[in-house]
What we know:
The chain has helices at 6-11, 21-25, 47-57, 70-92, 99-114, 116-122, 132-135, 148-166, 177-201, 205-214, 219-222. By secondary structure, the chain is mainly alpha-helical. Helix 5 packs antiparallel against helix 8 and helix 8 packs antiparallel against helix 9 (177-201).
Amino acid sequence: MGRTTPFLESLDTPLPPPPSLDAVTSTSASTSTPIEQLNHFITPEELPSFLSTSMRLTAPVMSSVDTPDLAQIEAAHAQRHDHAVEAIKRILSLSNGSSADRTRSNKQLCIETFGRHNTEATLPRDPGVPTPEETGKTPRAGPDTGSSEVQAAILTVKIRALEKQLHREDGHATKDKLNKRNLRLMVHRRQKHLKYLKRKEKGGIRYRNVLDALGLDDDAVTKELFL
């Protein structure tokens, strides 16, 4: 399936454990529990604004006729908010998600890593290749999900997930012939995407960057594959 690379290792990085139940229910709960990747299509950039809005909306409303202890009420509200934050982090943690959630998160990582909406600004340009302004092409709308490098990376995520499913702990091969066939189909489909990318980019920087990140060599693209 190729050699190990930092990008492939990031796909298999063990997720941090979710906050303990004591952290959710105890009086010492705080909002400092880190979460790198979130579930349910929430991004880490969106979470702080959501939590601050929640705290503002749940703030107690004071009446002009009441004379309560304002400091005590604010402290109780902040404590309840801290408990809610830890509970929300447990809900959003991929550690509590399914394998499908983890695969979806890895697909999004492929889009952000290899999508041309990001790599056009970070990867050096091959000599003689015109810029998008020089070609007069319509600017890309939204993230790049369909380019050959993104599709090859997404297929790599699916291949690795299916390969783990077919691997038995005792080392024996499974008898799941249908998924073995699906694995071969995905490997050859990835090869077609990489062949097209090599022909389109003339073996340039973008093509070499994808091969290096996916742990593949040129033989995996040009030669016949047997599984």
